[in-house]
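Hi everyone,

Forwarding the result from last night's run.
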Amino acid sequence: MWKGADATFPFVDSHDKTYSVRDGSDWEQTLKPRLRERLRSSKNIILILSGITTSSRALREEIDYGINDQDLPVIVVYPEYSTKESLLANGSLRSSVKTLWGRLPVFRDSMDKVPTLHVPMSKDLIKAALQDGDFMVGSKTAPGTYRYNP
């Protein structure tokens, strides 16, 4: 959405880097290998996490392989929050934000292995996150839960 309107927006969709697949493609022979190929060419994972996120087979596989095999940092974007302050309560991530992690148990259970940056749905903050070397595979910071201070 922003990439088309702003040529300086630093997002490269790894799903566009490899050939497309058909909806009827076989999971083990086609979809899973292509998903893994795309992750191997990624600097990080952008995870859009909301109250309607579904823990589908493909999403579980993407997060599991990306974190536990490829050691990719994760930038978590919360569309239900619009400011840095809205993610926080008493200087920490809100319990309602942390509850969303349970929508994708593989993420919740693996996120301590890589740096995870939690940002609201804000173009400027997402752009900053995408340009932040601390959340890229080749230059990442220590594993942990991070956020931008208000």
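Strands lie at 45-48, 74-78, 88-89, 92-93, 115-120, 144-147.

Cheers,
N.
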